[in-house]
Amino acid sequence: MEGYLQRFLALYRPVITRLNELMSTYGITYSQWIVIYHLKHRGASTLVEIAARHEVEKPTITRRVKKLMDLGIVEQILGNDKREKIIQLTDIGENIYRVVRKDITELEFRIMDNIPEHERKIAYEIFPKIDGNLKNEKELH
Amino acid sequence: MEGYLQRFLALYRPVITRLNELMSTYGITYSQWIVIYHLKHRGASTLVEIAARHEVEKPTITRRVKKLMDLGIVEQILGNDKREKIIQLTDIGENIYRVVRKDITELEFRIMDNIPEHERKIAYEIFPKIDGNLKNEKELH
DNA sequence: TATTTTAGTTACCCAAGGTAACTAAATGAT
DNA sequence: ATCATTTAGTTACCTTGGGTAACTAAAATA
């Protein structure tokens, strides 16, 4: 199966471009959406928790969160540990989640339209396997 | 199948990082590899041909090719149309193609190891379908 | 021959992320 | 209790990678 990665990578730009286009309506980008999605599904979180979960560095999350706070999509809540910055979705953020989630789901539906359900499932489940294999081989080295 | 795109996108960074790591041995990045790959499979080409094929803008290809010329991986040949810059792989370029191709194939083999052949095939064939669907819906708009 | 199109380059801009060095707060060890 | 270490977050700086607009030179077309 030579060329799997090539095909995989070739699809990245069209997809991310389309998604960013979709999100630009709401003043956000896909990378910021990741944070919104995280907060919706995991609840209020610290920046370190978000960074760890999505395997990016802390400064990356600082930047994303700063933008989202400017937009009024997330807000800080206070905890005991004064080092931590705990953030959660605002009401505006909850609304944006809903409409964007709907848009993404509809987009997914359209672009997977002609792909049988069992094939989607297989492709869907391959991604974490490859991710796992990549991590394993990093450990071996 | 909510979340297909999310999984797809989450895998991008690990994969591209691993590939760039692999290619750094030879002083190139994945985006430059695309050009090498193109020249190997399509033969000597103009910048416009490469740009069109991979759906990127001309300045992007100008930059990639410039870097590859500096590295002695590609060279310019002369054609009738003096506007065009026709480039091809040098001997060095051919060698780099071989070793990198081998490395990529081995990497692919390792990270697809525990995935049955028929599943790989399905996932492999889904990518161009999604790409096509994305392009269709862009046309509709 | 004059106009338009095409190939490529240049300059400028943006998104996205990483690393290193730092501050402030919390933990742990003596 | 105090001193050293770890942890959370920020800041500054750098790198990749690509897009847009404006431009030059050459070719095609009217």
Describe the structure.
- Chains A, B: It holds the Pfam family MarR_2.
- Chains A, B: This is MarR family transcriptional regulator.
- Chains A, B: Residues 1-132 form the HTH marR-type domain.
- The structure is a homodimer of 141-residue chains.
- Chain A starts with a helix and ends with a helix.
- Chain A is mainly alpha-helical and 141 residues long.
- The mean pLDDT of chain A is 94.
- Chain A contains six helices and three strands.
- Chain A has helices at 4-24, 30-42, 47-54, 58-70, 91-111, 117-140; strands at residues 45-46, 74-77, 86-89.
- Chain A has a three-stranded antiparallel β-sheet.
- In chain A, strand 2 and strand 3 form a beta hairpin.
- Helices cover 71% and strands 7% of the residues of chain A.
- Chain A has one domain (4-114): Orthogonal Bundle (Arc Repressor Mutant, subunit A), CATH 1.10.10.
- Chains A and B meet through helix 1, helix 5 and helix 6 of A and helix 1, helix 5 and helix 6 of B.
- The structure holds a DNA duplex (30 and 30 nucleotides).
The CATH superfamily of chain A bears the name: Winged helix-like DNA-binding domain superfamily/Winged helix DNA-binding domain
The count of helical stretches of chain A stands at: 6
Structure class of chain A: mainly alpha
Give Rg of chain A in angstroms: 17 Å
Instruction: Name the CATH architecture of chain A.
Output: Orthogonal Bundle
- How are the strands of the biggest sheet of chain A laid out side by side? 1-3-2
How far do the termini of chain A sit from each other? 24 Å
Contiguous runs where pLDDT drops below 50 for at least 5 residues of chain A:
none
Q: Main sheet of chain A, how many strands, which sense, barrel?
A: 3 strands, antiparallel
Of all chain pairs, the largest interface belongs to: A-B, 51 and 50 residues
Provide mean pLDDT of chain A, rounded: 94
Q: What is the number of beta strands of chain A?
A: 3
Fraction of residues in β-strands of chain A: 5-15%
Oligomer: homodimer
CATH fold call of chain A: Arc Repressor Mutant, subunit A
* CATH C-level label of chain A: Mainly Alpha
Helix content of chain A: over 70%
Number of domains of chain A: 1
Morphology of chain A: globular
